[in-house]
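ok, trying the design again with the full structure, not the truncated one.
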């Protein structure tokens, strides 16, 4: 297991075999996303990504707030050039992490909080979760993927309403419209997310990484190009030791023992 440095705005833990958890920890600010906290979170996730003992990661906050948005105090007074050079909402590091990440959301996930949750691969929500993009109230628009990922998730009409009128989605609405994977009671939502992460972590890390890549490409490519991309990754996995082990285990009717190679 990789040793993590001391962090000031996040905590890390490994609550189950193969599962790494990064938790936002700015309670007085309802986990508003400033440069320090996102930087520490991305560093911790990258370390888990390199750790062979970890197969799936969770990004979460507190019961009260996943993240209430970007830290407006940090952006207030900045010019367009300031933002272009030092964009505190540039979360491209998160998109480069290879292992699956589950956002576990309770309470508010607004603005940047909603966007960073959508940047993850799956979302598990407590019944108290509330999703929204209130940037219009500040005279700006979502700038960390909200206009794009939200539209892909819930469709143009609803995304327009959420972004233009500050409509908030409850956890049940988010589930109905396909924004989240599942909703659970406040008392059990985190453990249910850990169980989901354990399921992901129990599979071949090589196959999981490439499967994640293939699904994400569906948002970038047309169908024909996407199918070609999928097929190339499918063939590539036939060169892995895990493919040989997985198929042998199936034929021999025994559990697979993955080498993640």
């Amino acid at each position: 297991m990789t040793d993590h440095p001391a962090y000031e705005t996040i905590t890390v833990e490994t609550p189950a075999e193969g599962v790494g958890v990064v938790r936002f920890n700015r309670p007085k600010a309802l986990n508003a996303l400033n440069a320090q906290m996102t930087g520490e979170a991305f560093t911790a996730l990258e370390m888990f990504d390199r750790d062979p003992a970890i197969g799936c990661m969770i990004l979460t906050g507190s019961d009260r707030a996943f993240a209430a948005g970007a830290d407006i105090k940090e952006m207030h007074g900045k010019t367009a050039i300031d933002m272009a050079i030092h964009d505190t909402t540039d979360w491209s590091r998160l998109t480069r992490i290879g292992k699956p990440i589950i956002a576990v959301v309770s309470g508010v996930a607004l603005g940047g909080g909603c966007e960073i949750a959508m940047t993850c691969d799956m979302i598990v929500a407590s019944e108290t979760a509330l999703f929204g993009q209130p940037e219009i109230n500040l005279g700006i628009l979502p700038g960390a993927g909200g206009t794009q990922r939200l539209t892909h998730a819930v469709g143009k009409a609803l995304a327009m309403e959420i972004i233009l009128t500050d409509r908030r989605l409850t956890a049940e609405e988010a589930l109905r419209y396909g924004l989240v994977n599942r909703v659970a009671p406040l008392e059990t939502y985190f453990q249910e997310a850990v169980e989901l992460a354990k399921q992901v972590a129990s599979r071949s890390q090589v196959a999981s990484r490439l499967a994640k890549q293939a699904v994400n490409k569906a948002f970038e490519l047309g169908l024909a190009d996407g199918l070609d991309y999928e097929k190339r990754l499918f063939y590539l996995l036939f060169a892995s030791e895990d493919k040989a082990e997985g198929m042998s285990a199936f034929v021999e009717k025994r559990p697979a023992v993955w080498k993640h190679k």
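Keeping the full-length input from now on. The chain is about 45% helix and 15% strand.
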